[in-house]
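User:
I would dearly like some help making sense of a protein record. Take your time, and here it is.
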Amino acid sequence: MAPNGISESDIFASVIIIAAFVMAAGIVGRWLTNRFGQPAVLGELLIGIFAGNIGYWIGAPVFLVIMHLSEVAEIFSKVWLSGLSIIEATKQVLREGGLGLGEVGTQLGAILIGPNGPILVVTGITLWLFSSLGVLFLLFLVGLESSPGEMRQLGPRPILVATIGVIAPLGLGYMAIWWLLPESPHAVHLFVAATLSATSVGITARILRDLGKQNTPEALLILGAAVIDDILGLIILAVVVGIVTTGEFRVAELLRISLLSMVFFGILFIAGDRIVHWGIRLFRALDHHTYKLIFPVVLMLTTAWLANVIGLAAIVGAFAAGLVLTEEKFARYPDPGPTLQDIISPLQTVFAPLFFVLMGMQVNLASFLEPGVAWLSLVLTVAAVLGRLAAGLPASGRASPLSVGIGMVPRGEVGLIFAGTGKALGVVGDALFSAIVLMVVATTLAAPPGLKWSFSRGEAAARAA
């Protein structure tokens, strides 16, 4: 039996019915946007926002839990690690997170300490796990469909794109927030600027797949830059957190992330072929019927875990695993069967939409109605977009600078993580957090039609020439 006399079957039933709802919502969103010729991911985000806010406004408990999933996870983390009661942990987390014990905090607290609290929390966290697995499959598949040789031919351009893509929005964000909130502490300016420097490779990767452009020079440049961007973003976050919490520049943390990142990618790309060949032989000897499915998934999950251990995003490890695992490595064995893309694609199709719908369900539209939030978010959005468009300037040759710049625009879940860190530290207040969330939503929603337009524009120009 589970806690409070709730059976495991009750929890499982709740998880599967909400998962079914989220999957069905995703396909409805894809159908709607396909009718208007837009990428599917846009529909999944929008249907998530719509369904999440409707459920939230009518007071459905599961939607309230999903809307505040980060606080819910933190509450149970405190209970598990500190020994606090669930009531004490709820009050502490809600105060630290800015929800306080007002109407929303009281409702959430009542749900968590109520008889159905365990069911709702396990449901929300399980959905988050499923969605995280989906984005791993998505980036792994993008890596499989990318050409390491073509990426190497790009030379230093991904480094230039990533560097400008971090520095430009960082500088513009700092100036914008200093202009808007000149009386705020220096730590506030730093955190907002760091948030604008974040990017979401998961969003862009999905858009490129929806458009069938995952093998274009623009896609290769964007994805290569995104990996570097992730490392630079984590370094910046570590530095800013160090300055905020200790008042000093943490050189050791910067060197740690930089060194571990270089070691991780160095080992993966130098010894990757040997690891893959050894793994294929071993798994094929164990079961030659399923090795082409099981080994790639094991490799993806392992590299994602290693990336997370050293402080990188797990999706970066999944993408790197896709790069080193190519179809040609299975060609030496008889009867290789379906391609890796054919095998992994159904898994991505099932799980990845959960990530985008669930992300939309965590966007609270009511927070955008607070005084001054709209203006603040508009200025931050302009700074965020201009900074990323500047990142496309180093693109040359066959790659379109405009498409590369637009592809780097989405902040997605990475921007929310940065903002949430600032909120947890007490640096980012409620109004500023709402403005940042609106900026994240705006940049995420603008990317799908923006990339579709930029690629169509380039194709039209090529036909005219």
Remarks:
- The first helix runs from residue 8 to 35.
